[in-house]
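Hey, I'm writing a tutorial for new members on how sequence and structure tokens pair up, and I'd like a real worked example in the thread rather than a made-up one. If someone can provide the structure for the chain below, I'll link this post from the tutorial.
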Amino acid sequence: MSGNKESVISEKTLGIGFGCTVVTSYSPVINSADYATFDAFMEKLQATWDAEWAATMNADPAGLDPLVLSGAAAEEPYPAALKISQLLWTALAGALLVATTALSWRALVAATAVLGPQAHQPVLALLVAWFGASMVYCWDSSPPKPRAATAGATKGGAAAGGRAVVAEARAAGGAGANGLHNRKGSS
């Protein structure tokens, strides 16, 4: 479970944040086979969920253990199949860009040929105005601003200036009872 994820990337506001704090926690695995009835299993599941929710949303990131990546997550590169797939998609996107540019240029030349030489300047001015309006519409010169913590995250949050993430399960004493972890950083 993670709190304050919306400060890092928000689909609602289409925004991102840097240097934000995200606290993540985990619990031990709960197997349904360990319980006599479904209701007993769900009761344990709900109690664990509630406890993790409270611990995550109210955690102070400053007191959490840092994330330490180990094993495959820290050392393995992308698989070859993924690299090849990325290369092919990038090549396809490049080819589509070149084709679209060539077809657009041909359409522009055809339009000016049909309309005559007197239409060349108005067509070009229209294209420049379209491009300029697109750039003005997309321009946002303001730097990213830190976001306040969400209503449920009363402690920690974006103002804490760090990033808290969950690490692999560690031996007793390494992560605390609730499995919360923190890593300070600016990315």
